[in-house]
Specification:
This protein has 4 helices and 16 strands. It has helices spanning 2-23, 34-46, 220-223, 248-260; strands at residues 71-74, 80-85, 92-93, 107-109, 114-118, 131-134, 139-142, 154-158, 163-166, 180-182, 187-190, 204-206, 211-212, 214-215, 229-231, 244-245.
Amino acid sequence: MGFYSQLVSHFALLIIPILTRFLSFHVEPFTPNITTDKEALISFKSQLSNDPPHPLYSWDHNSSPCNWTGVFCNNLHDNRVVALNLSGLGLSGHISTYIGNLSFHDSLQLQNNQLTGVIPDQIDIDLLIKLEVKLGKNNLYGTIPPSLGNISTLTNISFGTNTLSGKIPSHLGRLKNLIELDLTINNLTGTIPPSIYNLSSLVNFALAANDLWGEFPEDVGNRLPKLLVFRVEFLDPCTISPTLKLSKWLTTRLMELYHQV
């Protein structure tokens, strides 16, 4: 026993200093700043086509991203990138997941381009704040990421005119600040999740030109009191697909909106 006791004592003398140094090692917390914003944007650009003339030629490592095309910064917060508007620039390629590293970002507008691929679901949603996401009129496919439902301050989802498929995620019903949900002209299937009707802040709700079916709740007018735009089809409301059954209130409201056009 004496030998084993001595062995344990020697081992303790060796390992304790190592453990002490390991436990006292200080790791600096990750602090997003304009440098991390630049890195995220450069990574985003790397996923795009480099065919000349490149619309993002001003995105140079040696200059401030606040001077780049389509990038907007806030001088009150250390020149952090707060918005990205690259709509209508003819961009092609994929949307990089690094776009989620723009932690001060509140507007992502990539609509009316030639972007392809899926909408990333690996976005670091814990860093995002108030945000509107406009990706309409591209060539995006795949499903709508359910993780979008975790961005509690999301106000705008505009994914119209793509080839998105699958069902509308029920997780979107968590977005209590959502004002616009535009999913027109896609290949979405199934029914509208009941949770969507809990979005009392919704003003624009567009679902036209999909393969949806089911019926709308009778109390939809009470549950969506701010609703001003409701697009089910592009035709006269009287010709709406019979697979989408409308409540009396909704039929009346659609007729009113139709005659206001």
